[in-house]
Design brief:
With 180 residues, the chain is mostly helical. The chain has one domain. It is built from six helices and no strands.
């Protein structure tokens, strides 16, 4: 059991390191660090960090009863960044970015519902919605890959993996976590 837990922790570390490198690439690729894509990346790093914090300490199958004020503050800052970027994507009429950003915001909302109401998180309706939303992000990644936008493709792929890590935390698939 301990080796499974260590494997999962090592996997998460590699995935999150790849994500941080990805964010660095977006910041370097943009004209400045306040470019909408860079702000989007920073916002989602904050959101992901709060999700990791909240789901990593929650025993599998138990509901989150409250979120700390600092966590909520960081979370709202992350969403402000994501909404800033979405507003930019709408302004430039980029349908793929709009679809991707909207799907991620919906996935995020669904994760919060799952955290506070885990009893229904494995039901067929939520599962269908969850897979549909991830399907949209996957299709956006495929689109970028076919379009030759490799940084966008890589970005989408690494974010999908990162959020699956959060999903694993929520559903307790790393069940040894509860024993620590």
């Amino acid at each position: 059991m301990a080796s499974k837990f260590l494997w999962f922790q090592a996997f998460k570390a590699v995935v999150y390191a790849a994500l941080l490198a990805n964010v660095g690439l977006f910041i370097l690729d943009g004209d400045d660090w306040l470019a909408p894509k860079a702000v989007d990346q920073i916002g989602w790093i904050i959101i992901l960090a709060v999700f990791e914090w909240e789901t990593g300490r929650l025993p599998p199958g138990e509901a989150l009863t409250r979120i700390s004020v600092p966590s909520l503050g960081f979370e709202l800052l992350g969403y402000a960044c994501a909404l800033f970027a979405l507003n930019h994507y709408v302004a430039i009429r980029d349908p793929i970015e709009i679809a991707n950003a909207t799907a991620w915001l919906a996935i995020s909302a669904l994760i919060w519902v799952d955290l506070f109401r885990p009893d229904g998180s494995r039901g067929p309706a939520r599962a269908a919605l969850r897979w549909s939303l991830y399907g949209i992000t996957f299709l956006c990644a495929v689109w970028w890959g076919m379009d030759g936008a490799w940084l966008d493709f890589w970005d989408a792929a690494i974010w999908i993996v990162c959020f699956f890590v959060i999903e694993i935390n929520i559903f307790g698939l790393d069940s040894t976590r509860a024993k620590l």
